[in-house]
Structures are given as C-alpha cells and as structure tokens.
Amino acid sequence: MTDASDLADRVQAGDLRLYELEDHADADTAAAARRELLERETDASLDATGAFAFDADEVDPNVENLAGGTQLPLGVAGPLAVSGGSADDEFYLPLATTEGALVASVNRGCSAITAAGGANARVTKVGMTRAPVFRVEDVTEGAEVAEWVEANVDALREAAEGTTSHGELTEVTPYVVGDSVFLRFAYDTKDAMGMNMATIATEAAADVVESETPAELVALSGNLCSDKKPAAINAVEGRGRTVTADVTIPRAVVEERFDTTPEAIEEANTRKNLIGSAKAGSLGFNAHAANTVAAVFLATGQDAAQVVEGSNAITTVEDRGDELYASVNLASLEVGTVGGGTKLPTQREALDVLGVRGGGDPAGANATRSRKSSRPARSPASSACSRRWRPGTSPRRTRNSGADASTFSFSPRQTRSYFPGARRGEYERTHGRRPRGAVARGERAPRAEAPAHRARARADAPSRALRGAALVDGQPDEVRARREHDRDPGDGRGLALEQFADQQQQPPDHREHVADAVLVVAGEHPQDGGEREPGREHGRERRQRRHPGHRPRRVGARDHDHDRCAHERHTHDDLPESRQPSVHRPDVAHPPARTCGSTATTTGSRRPPR
C-alpha cells in the first residue's frame, strides 16, 4: 500500500494533486502525506496538527484536503438558569475561544442571572432564507412575475418540499428592482441550520418559476437572503431563528456581582450601545455579542462564518429603581443540532452538555427547546432573589398578581418611569386624565377631587375655550345665564354656546373665531350690542396697548364674501369689526394686508404666505 512519503513525493513531482490523494490511499494516510508535504515545503513542524481525535473518514463532508486538526481551548460557564419555550432548567455553556477573560465575563453574567431567578428566553420566529435573482424584460414583466408568484405559492411549496423530508416552505416574498426580480424564500428547517436544505429546495422552486413565467434565473443566491453578510433585511425580517431573552436583576445582586449600580449600567448602555452604535451606523446595538456567539458556535459545530449574522443583536437596559431590567434580541441566529460540524466528536460532546444533540422528536423540537434534566430545578426561594413579587420591587410584576398596588412604596425614579396600574386607574377615574407633573413624579399625592370652581366650570362649559373663559371670568353662573339669553337668534348674529364644541372640531380657520364667540355670548363684544364692564379693556385694545407695533391679523380671503367683492381690488381693512380675529400672537410676524385681486387668495391665514 502506498505510504505517506511516496504520496508526498508524487505531489512534489507533479504527478498527483492534493485533492487526488484519497484516490490512492485511505483518509488518514492522505492527511499524513499532506502534512509531510507541508513540512518539506515550509520547514514547519505539524506534530500537534496531526494529533487529532476525530476519524479522518468522517469529516469528508466538512473539509477538503484534510491535513489534521486544530484544537481550541474549551471553557465552561454556568450554571445559567433559563426558562425557555419547552424547558425550565439550569445549563452549563461550552465556549471554545482563545480570548482571555471571555469565559470569566460570561460566567459572571450567568451567576447574576441565576441569582436573580433566571432569564426568560423565547424563539419568536423561524425562517432560513434563500433569495434567487431572475432576469425580466422590464418592470411591467417583473410585476407580472411577482403577481404570479404570490398567486402560486402552493405550487412552489410543493416543488420545494419535494426535495426534503423535514423542511417546510413558509413564505415567498417578491422584490422587483428594474429588470431584476428577487424572490426571498423562507423555510422552517426544523433541527438543522438548513442553509443547504434551503438552497436545494429553492433550486427546485426556481425551475417552476422559469417554466411558468418569462423570468430567467441568473443566480440561485441574489444576496437578498442575505447570507454571511451584515444586512438590514436580516435585522428587520430575521433569518434562521429570531431569539429574544430578558432578565430582571435586583439592585443588591447588581451591586454585589458587578460592583456598580443599575443607573450606571443603564447610562452606559444608552450612550455606548445605542447612541454610539447609531452614530457609527452599526447594524447591531450591543457591546460585543460576536465573541460570545463565536465561542458557542465553535464549541457546538455551527457555521463560524455566520457569526456575522448571529451577532446582529440589540441590547436594552432599564433602571427600575430597585431592579435592573436587561434584554437581548438576536434577530438572525443561524444554528442547528444536526448536520454540518455538529457531527464532529468534540462538538457532539458539547451539544450533549446542553442536552440538544441530534434531531428532536418531533422534528424541530431541539431547535426550540433546552434540556429538561432529571435534576430538580432550583427553587426560587433557594436563589439570592426570587422571581416572585417582593414588596418594594417593580410594580409591573404585580399587575396580574391581584396584589394591592396602592400599598407598595415607590421611589421618585420608579414613579417617573411608570405609574402603578391600580393607583393610575384610580387617578384616571377621579380626574378624567392620566397623572402628570408632581403627581406622576411621586412628589405629592393626587387630590381626592378637583376644586369646586373647576368642577362647576367643567359641568357648565361645552368646550375647552368656554371653560377657559369661565375660569378667567370667575363667574360661571353669569355665563350660564347669558347662554339662555343668547339662544334667541333674532338678530342673526347670536351664537348659542352649544355650537362651540362643534366648532372645536372644525378646521383651524373656523376655530380661530371661537374666542370672539365666547365674548359675544358673554356680552363683552361690540357685536350683539354687548356692553363692556366699566374699567375693562376689550381684547383688541389690550393687545394694542401691550404691543403697539403690531397690527391685527387679517382674515383669510376664504373667510369673506367674494361675491360682494366682485373682483374689486381692495384691502381687508374694510371688513367689519366682527370679522377681525381677537386672538393675536406677538411672536409671529404678520405680513401686511394684500389685495384680493381677481382670484381668491389667502391673505391672512395662520401661517405667513410662502
């Protein structure tokens, strides 16, 4: 049988190529021949590379031109208490890395999470994608192809699922860009990461598209997938598994395990992970998710290149007074428990540590669950902090517990960020609005009821404008009496108070006369023959005295009679006093009056003319 040295000689002489060695010897001998060739050519020693533990015959699907194995240090962090979709347990995390302090950092986080009672984790979306690109004549033809695809998803599903025993086509989304049509196929690949599964299935579906439409396939992957590249579409739509997790850690645990405070962590996360990432244009808003994701990927046999998408994470932190709330969302985590590197010996062992090696029963079970061990789960009471409600902790945790939220003690910071449900509901029922100001900040208790004069004014006033006028005047009874007097529309100019609320729903050019109407009803406007009280200035006179340099704002052309105008060029100064608005804003520069001319032009609207 040919030995490694002979094979190395033939390669050096040009008789054989590196990839042909397995045709002349077994896999172990071929690998040894490549190592010897490299040692001759580079003068390097590959003794450690040759000391690998896996069977060379078994890695043929994973690597070509095998020369040996590269070992990585494997650390372990935990235990980590997690409540997943199908399990509630504690887990040890295998991490393969060469980065010092990474395992220690993760281990400290696991310690704090477990002491807080554990984290919640859920898989919220599943969909491995592949997006072929097709050529069409123009956008019209592209739109026709897109319409056909949307109407024939069942035919595409039948073709795609005929290539796999487990994969399921969940959706097809068309995108038309000029004379290119992209079809983004999404699959539930069960326990497999599923990139190869999706590619093969999409090829079968693409054949159907080509046969039934004028579209011509250009590339099976049009980069709209988007695979192994940072892409916003994966951050928004997700790819592989979209996973989210959160935890609430008591202040005492934060100070003990992290030697800091919830306020400091929240500020650092906001300024660094959110503002800093936004300024940099980052697609991920996190501190360094990639190194942890990469360590888990290497330890468990995942596709290391897809760390690019797997680390696309958003980290949020909120100081809740006596607690710290933290969450992480991984939009495109592409992992599997079967296929690829998961079949390698050390990677199989790492998956055994997690309890998710191989395919689940039913298919897909391992992709959405963690191991349910025989060891009794940790009791909340045995942790440093229970997940159950405790007095003085976040009131959000008690809304469905039936506890009396009014007996809780809240710090000003707690009540500033949210108001307890029971107390907020009582306040809204009493006052008809949500708390604000000092009440919302917790600096004073809400009043049992509103002052009497405000209550009377609200009962009498049908609109916000009238309510304000009644409060300023301080005589709601007199205003109510005058309302009865002004019900008589004999002079054609009286305005009943019941119409004010309707006017409030009208466009701004109608609402601007509400203040005048209030004065008309109260008998304080020259219109309707109202007499002003002695010593009281009319609103127009008062504004003119306070702001002598400002002219009254003109009414828009749409507000006066153009039939009477008959296209005569005139200014709006000839409008009657009753048509002039009484509301004046000294902070707005009002343009001089313009003539109407022969067309209806707005000369005095709320905004200056452009």
Question: Quick summary of this structure?
Answer:
With 610 residues, this protein is of the alpha+beta class. The protein has helices at 4-13, 27-42, 102-115, 139-151, 153-161, 195-212, 232-237, 251-258, 262-280, 289-300, 307-310, 345-354, 412-417, 421-431, 452-460, 464-473, 476-485, 498-504, 508-511, 514-521, 539-546, 562-565, and strands at 74-83, 88-96, 119-130, 133-135, 168-177, 180-188, 216-219, 240-250, 313-319, 323-333.
Defining key terms:
disordered C terminus, alpha+beta, 22 helices, 10-stranded mixed beta sheet, 610 residues
- Uncertain runs: 370-424, 460-476, 483-498, 508-515, 517-533, 552-572, 581-586, 590-610
General shape: globular
Number of helices: 22
Task: Give the C-alpha Rg.
Answer: 37 Å
| SS-derived structural category | alpha+beta
Biggest beta sheet attributes: 10 strands, mixed
Question: In what range is the share of β-strand residues?
Answer: 5-15%
C-alpha end-to-end distance: 93 Å
Q: Determine the mean pLDDT.
A: 75
**Helix share of residues?**
25-40%
Strand tally, please?
10
